[in-house]
């Protein structure tokens, strides 16, 4: 309504200069001119000036004038790069933009599926080492979290975290190392190596097909892939693989060391057709990997489900159908009543078993199925 009134008044004001109007129109024009000269909003439109940044205009509205609920909603909708850009505006916005409440969501959306309890423990250890390094002269010459390496996501944040000591101290007070934002940025820059598991390790090497092994991972923001460091196998050195994609990663389903035998709690429930993962290692110096398989039928069973009693037997048949019939890796048997690590130096050692009930886990193994049968 106010906009309609202003348009009407302005139209009348300018038309009066070129038209012959009655005397009352001249008086109206004089009143309108007086109103416009006293209205700061109209003056700003007619005579725009460059405001002094240090002296805000008295009627200028700031984003900080918004109600807290509205401002929080705007910040909640921003992506990580937007939050980093907004943090450059002023100290008040920076304090809001680095809050854990905003960054918890972004951390969960991008990293939640591959960060397990082991990764969170490793982050705490990383924090301890970061606090220790923050007191060393070497650490004072660089950014605590490597912000200069943030390329695609937070290039604009570099001016917030400058190299001078005073600025860095202010940053440390507004962005604690143990904040969620710090964790997110450490992951994005690749500075934080975290534990997770990799499907079909070493670029899908035939010797690791349909398996999942523990590794330490570092993110490469340029390629949107990861570098994986696998623990040494016996006397073999650490294996490194680059270009690991997101689809080949998961958080460890069992929160335990890869050298520890998993105590299975679902052996008595196993029946033919169930999908499972089983620990296997080449020898006892090696860490376990998880291998995909299916519960099969005993040789005495014809496979007819109406007459099958395999689930009542103490022995369980495990089949790895990615291997050709007759392969020594195709089939094995375990005792579910007194299960422990079983095997030998020739065929390797079988450990604990996980029964798969999640459709997403089963579908993941199906997508990784090799294009040809393995020998």
TrEMBL record:
This is F-box domain-containing protein. The keyword Lipid biosynthesis does not apply. It comes from the Eukaryota. Pfam families: F-box-like (PF12937). Residues 1-20 form the signal peptide. The keyword Signal applies. Residues 60-106 form the F-box domain. Keywords: Signal. It comes from Eutrema salsugineum.
